[in-house]
Structure formats: structure tokens, C-alpha cells
Write a structure and sequence with these properties.
It is a single chain. By secondary structure, this protein is of the alpha/beta class. It contains 9 helices and 22 strands. The protein has 2 domains: 275 residues, Rossmann fold, CATH 3.40.50.150; 40 residues, no CATH class. A hairpin with a 2-residue loop joins strand 1 and strand 2. Bound molecules: S-adenosylmethionine.
């Protein structure tokens, strides 16, 4: 075991049987829960687990070409907007959705040490009393539960910044696996989202990027670089050789490791892992809805198009301004969104309703109680038997 100051890096065999380095913090082993799929089974079958209470259902008249996306032809589906702490919501979701979520995007608190306000109202507190151990434990438990919710071909994008990315990568490697090649589960990309917001420190380089980590549950996952890429076109970009046929059509060739690669000008290039073409939302951006830390819809559009298919199920358990459910809805994906903040839920709900069209969704919150669950089939979800009684 190696000791790196405050933390310890040790060699472990992770729960996927891989021998690898591990990040250890105070409380990791005393608090550890749900570390394996077998232990998740215990949660799923635990009748004392909290469950959801549906307090409103929102259905708009659908336009002719706007279908009510459904997981199967026999079951109607309602998207879900849930008020609650992820510590309660994720275990409750496991009961219904273990292994069924196709795409997860999370933009959790970054341990900034700040309170975030929208106007005078507190949106959420990101202070953590400077307790990095507590924060890492919280993040670790989140990743473990999210992995168990993910479908075998699912992907997770974790949006962080310079404060936490390095810790999160080691933890994600432990939970999802680290295979720098392309043919295993786990790490796929460290995406740099580079933006030009105001403010430049005189003491160090201006910090102008966030990091979005992409991990997959297995080697078989959905990825469509062509949907989000730029057309190769006729303009010269690098060392490729340009060939123009008699019809004026351009092809690009390059040889590498003894092989000749040929690309048509009409093909689409997968974007690189540095995204500089999506602007942050400036103060007066019309997309802004007033929620602090709101991310641009273009970012989510790229992620959802690349890593999911129509009708797939998308989850964001820190939905804030509602960017993920709104973009998912517009792109015909099913979605589940959650946040602990009443303001986030209100903002998300208003944002969804401000769209010209929105698929039916229900508002839920965690209901305390110990009722057993039964499948009522209503809203395409599994609801607790004595839902009303538990309010
Ligand atoms: C960085 S913001 C997300 C911003 C969002 N991606 C957007 O574009 O608007 C983090 C969110 O996590 C929520 N949050 C913090 N702790 C939470 C918890 N334990 N459970 C659920 N939500 C939580 C906060 O209320 C906040 O809305």
C-alpha cells in the first residue's frame, strides 16, 4: 500500500476482478455500501426502501407527428421528474430500473465551497464543510448506484471541473473499469469543454474548461460520432492527400502503419475530445432560465445524439435547470430527472412546459414508508401498493 499524504493508493482487485490502483479516503470501508451487483439485489428486494409518490401528471394534446414514446407497444410511458435527494431516489429507482438506463449524464456539485443562488433564492449549497472525505464517499456511492442502473450497453457522462476530476477518474476506473484500449468496459474519454467566460486571474492561467468523463458499462455501447461530427468537406485540414475525380468530387487519403485510408468529402468526422465550439451561456443568453450553473442545451444535444437512440431511457439525477430532460424530450428519448432542490424542480417543470410540445410526464417525490411494491402498470411504472396512504 502506498501512502500519498492524506490519501492512500493501494492495489486492489476491483469488483470486476481487475487488479488496479485504488483511491482510499476516510470512511470508504466503514461506510461502503452497495459495492457489488449482488449487494444491489439486497436493496432492490428490501421492502423498507423509500418509494415514489406521484403528485401530478402532465399531459399535453399531442400533435399528429408527435408520438407518445413507449418502452413497448403494450405499455404507455410517462417521463419522470422527481424531487428528492439522490441518496433516496437512486435506490428507489433501482427497484424498477436496474440495468435499464441507456444513458446517464450527471453534473453533480463540484465541491466549490459556495452557495448557488437564483436571484435571492438558494438553489443549492455546495459547501461540504471542506470535508473532501465526505464528498468522495458521496460521489463513490453515486457512481456505484448509477452503474447498477445502467443497461449493459449504457454510457455515463460525468461533468466536473479541475477541483474534482482527478479524484473522480480514479474512482470511476474502480467502479466501471479502466481499459485504455477500445474493447473493454470502463473509461472511454476525458472530454474537455473549453469556453471563453470573462475573468482572468493574474496568479495562474485562466481556468476555462470543464471536464466530462465518459465511461461505458461494457465493451458494447451506443456511439454515433457521425451524428454529431462535421462533414469532412473539400477544405484541407491536415496532412491528408486530396484527390479530385473527373466529376470534381473530393476524396482524402492518408497512409498509416502500412495501410491506406480513403475518406469521401461527404463523410462525417467524429469530433475530437476537445469541444471548443459550444459556448457557455453568457449572462444575457436567451437560453438562460435563471438557474445557477445551467449548462447549454447544445452540450446535452451532442451527448444524447452520440450515445443514445430514439426511445432510449436517459437519466440525470442532478437536473438543475432541466437541460437534460428538455433536450432528451425534444430528441424523442424517454427520461427520468431528479433534483433535491424545489427550485430546480420548479424551473425544470416550467422549462418543459414552455416547449411547444412535451411528452407526458409525472411529478414525483420520495414518500416515506415501508409499503411493499406492486406493479400497477399506471404511467408505465411500478408503484408502491399503498401510495396514497404514505403521504
Ligand atoms: C451543477 S448543478 C446541475 C446543473 C444542471 N446540469 C444544469 O445544467 O442546470 C447540481 C445540481 O445538483 C443538485 N443536487 C445537489 N446535491 C444533490 C443530491 N444529494 N441529490 C439530488 N440533487 C442534488 C443541486 O440542487 C443542483 O441543482
Amino acid at each position: 500500500m502506498l501512502s500519498c499524504g492524506y490519501f492512500t493508493v493501494s492495489k486492489i482487485v476491483n469488483n470486476r476482478g481487475i487488479n488496479m490502483a485504488e483511491l482510499v479516503w476516510k470512511g470508504k470501508y466503514t461506510n461502503q455500501q452497495w459495492a457489488s451487483d449482488e449487494e444491489a439485489e439486497i436493496i432492490i428486494s428490501n421492502p423498507t426502501i423509500q418509494h415514489f409518490y406521484t403528485y401530478e401528471s402532465i399531459e399535453r394534446q399531442s400533435a399528429d407527428n408527435w408520438s407518445n414514446v413507449a418502452p413497448s407497444s403494450t405499455q404507455s410511458w410517462y417521463n419522470r421528474l422527481i424531487l428528492g435527494d439522490k441518496n433516496a431516489v437512486l435506490p428507489a429507482l433501482l427497484y424498477e430500473f436496474a440495468g435499464q438506463i441507456n444513458l446517464i449524464y450527471i453534473d453533480p456539485p463540484f465541491m466549490t465551497g459556495r452557495d448557488f443562488k437564483s436571484g435571492m433564492q438558494l438553489a443549492y449549497s455546495d459547501k461540504w464543510d471542506n470535508d473532501l472525505d465526505a464528498y468522495l464517499q458521496w460521489l463513490y456511492e453515486t457512481f456505484i448506484l448509477l452503474r447498477q442502473l445502467l443497461a449493459s450497453n449504457g454510457s455515463i457522462y460525468v461533468h466536473l471541473d479541475w477541483r474534482i476530476t482527478h479524484y473522480a477518474r480514479v474512482i470511476l476506473d474502480e467502479v466501471f473499469g479502466y481499459n485504455p484500449g477500445t474493447d473493454g468496459p470502463g473509461f472511454k474519454n476525458e472530454i474537455i469543454w473549453h469556453y471563453q467566460s470573462g475573468g482572468r486571474s493574474l496568479k495562474h492561467y485562466a481556468r476555462k474548461h470543464d471536464t466530462i468523463l465518459l465511461y461505458t458499462k461494457s465493451a458494447h455501447y451506443c456511439f454515433h460520432g457521425e451524428r454529431i461530427g462535421e462533414r469532412r468537406g473539400a477544405k484541407k485540414r491536415n496532412h491528408m492527400k486530396k484527390c479530385v475525380d473527373t466529376g470534381g468530387h473530393v476524396q482524402w487519403t492518408i497512409s498509416s502503419a502500412g495501410r491506406l485510408y480513403t475518406y469521401d468529402e461527404d463523410t462525417f468526422m467524429t469530433p475530437t475530445d476537445v469541444w471548443s465550439d459550444i459556448s457557455h451561456l453568457h449572462q444575457k443568453d436567451p437560453e438562460r432560465n435563471g438557474y445557477a450553473t445551467q449548462k447549454p442545451a447544445a452540450l446535452l444535444e451532442r451527448i444524447i445524439l452520440a450515445s443514445s437512440e430514439e426511445n432510449d431511457l436517459v437519466l440525470d439525477c442532478f437536473c438543475g435547470s432541466g437541460v437534460t430532460p428538455t433536450v432528451a424530450d425534444q430528441l424523442g428519448r424517454r427520461w427520468i430527472a431528479c433534483d433535491q432542490s424545489e427550485l430546480a424542480l420548479k424551473t425544470t417543470c416550467e422549462r418543459l412546459l414552455a416547449q411547444d410540445q412535451v411528452h407526458p410526464f409525472i411529478l414525483q417525490r420520495i414518500a416515506e414508508g415501508t409499503s411493499a411494491h406492486v406493479n400497477s402498470g399506471k404511467y408505465g411504472i411500478i408503484e408502491p401498493a399503498n401510495n396514497q396512504a404514505d403521504q
